[in-house]
Design a protein that fits this description.
Order of helices and strands: HHHEHEEEEHEEEHHHHH
Strand order of the largest sheet: 1-4-3
Structural class: alpha+beta
Number of helices: 10
Shape: globular
Number of strands: 8
Number of domains: 2
């Protein structure tokens, strides 16, 4: 008669041990984000980040960099159960990608918090918890059939999509600006906050005109034109932000502006690695926020995702 050994159970961790483990993971992810920012000191790295933003713009700047640092080819990520809802499964052996999701908690540490109500916003605080997600390339269809379209297919080039100009023009109008096409001198376009006018050169072809309009709308969305003295003092940063937003928005529409946008950003981001690093770190969150807002207003695509989506960072 064979003797079977009783399987030893691993002791269940205590709430304190789980909290400590989570705090360690959060600290590791924040350190990973800082390291990822430090890598963005070259134009090529900034372009790689913007290429990632084309697919991952629903996420915050921090979580997007975390995803790309763990999986540079990431284009579509979701939680384990969300992939199951989409009739896909995470392949065995695939390692999770980790992001930081916000959660609002009540501060129960202080005596004054004991009698607080839900309306006591000053006694609430935002904490971040690590959340696992997987890219679509780490999953497979439940029916075993291959994907008919490879994730991250090349973007389209050529003329501007039919509704791109009209939708961006409508968004500019909603922001209180009038759109014109005409003489813009040596510039491709400009925005005049005094007359609340956006003008795009009438000498441009449709594709470049749409990209230029996106750039000008980005200036408005980023509030660059609310204080022109401030704009002149920080023009490099603001031009980097506007063209980066334009690059992402154009790509989502299917218009590849890399040939123009990448050299443009390179020229404005700075002359030394330190200058470029400071510009990129300052621009990242603003670029993602503005791109999300514009895309939500001018596209028909639902850019919401599952519960792992993060809110603006506190």
């Amino acid at each position: 008669m064979a003797v079977t050994k009783a399987r030893s159970r691993r002791p269940r961790s205590t709430p304190e041990e789980r909290a400590e483990k989570q705090a360690t993971r959060v600290a590791e992810l924040k350190g990973q984000f800082d390291a990822a920012v430090a890598q963005l000191v070259t134009t090529d790295s900034w372009r790689t980040m913007l290429d990632g933003a084309i697919h991952l713009h629903r996420y915050s700047f921090r979580n997007m960099l975390l995803l790309l640092s763990q999986c540079p080819q990431a284009t579509q990520v979701a939680g384990y159960r969300e992939w199951q809802k989409r009739e896909r499964h995470v392949r065995q052996g695939e390692r999770a990608l980790w992001i930081l999701a916000p959660m609002t908690v009540r501060d129960t540490d202080s005596d004054t918090a004991k009698g607080s109500t839900d309306q006591d916003d000053d006694r609430r605080r935002v904490l971040y918890r690590p959340v696992p997600v997987w890219d679509i390339t780490q999953t497979a269809r439940n029916d075993g059939k291959p994907d008919t379209v490879a994730p991250g297919a090349p973007r389209l080039t050529g003329d501007a999509p039919a509704k791109m100009w009209d939708n961006l023009a409508a968004h500019a109008t909603s922001l209180g600006y009038t759109l014109e096409q005409g003489d813009t001198g040596t510039a491709n376009g400009w925005t005049n906050p005094d007359t609340r006018t956006v003008r795009v050169s009438d000498t441009l072809n449709d594709a470049h005109a749409a990209k230029t309009l996106t750039h000008e709308v980005a200036h408005i969305q980023c509030e660059h034109v609310t204080d022109m003295d401030e704009y002149q003092q920080h023009r490099g940063l603001m031009e980097t932000e506007a063209e980066s937003v334009a690059y992402v928005v154009c790509a989502v529409f299917g218009l590849d502006s890399a040939a123009y946008s990448v050299p443009y950003v390179a020229g404005w981001a700075g002359t030394t690695p330190e200058d470029v690093h400071n510009t990129i770190k300052a621009a990242g969150n603003r670029v993602m926020t503005a791109a999300k807002t514009i895309l939500a207003a001018v596209t028909l695509t639902d850019h919401t995702d599952d519960a792992t989506d993060d809110q603006p960072e506190q």
